[in-house]
């Protein structure tokens, strides 16, 4: 069996679950298409908790995503294929999606780079930020818009980028200086009585 056939077979195995368990499809569609809004809201909430750790975490998450996305664009130059629904027959396509290069999955890159950045810092919600990107990655296959290789590659790039940025950013004094400048300006506009440094 070639790798290409294995990729297709693995796609069929997950995508066909939507036909076998249609009552799960609304939840899967929410994960695949709308969980992005929850992630964006989480970034905003963490930023406006106005703690230094949370803000450094958000900065790391954003930089990790940018770095991972650049790597993803480079990877897409070496390999490309259309979405499964555009190529394969009888795909259980549950959401609308443009036809373009689906390798690697941008959604998966985003969720793994941001969520793993959160997972490395947060304590109380650690389990959430570890489980969420995996659920979203599987959902993108389930709804018919990505192959397993798309999400596996996206996950790899996201994790590597999150780990690299988590290691690098604390060493960059310029990031800390820019954050301090922002917070000084913010304090003049939105004074805060209590700025706890703990999560």
TrEMBL record:
Gene3D superfamilies: Phosphatidic acid phosphatase type 2/haloperoxidase. The chain crosses the membrane at residues 27-49, 61-82, 102-120, 127-145, 151-169. GO terms for cellular component: plasma membrane. GO terms for molecular function: undecaprenyl-diphosphatase activity. Keywords: Membrane, Transmembrane, Transmembrane helix. Residues 61-166 form the Phosphatidic acid phosphatase type 2/haloperoxidase domain. The keyword Transmembrane applies. This is Bacitracin transport permease protein BcrC. It comes from Aneurinibacillus aneurinilyticus ATCC 12856.
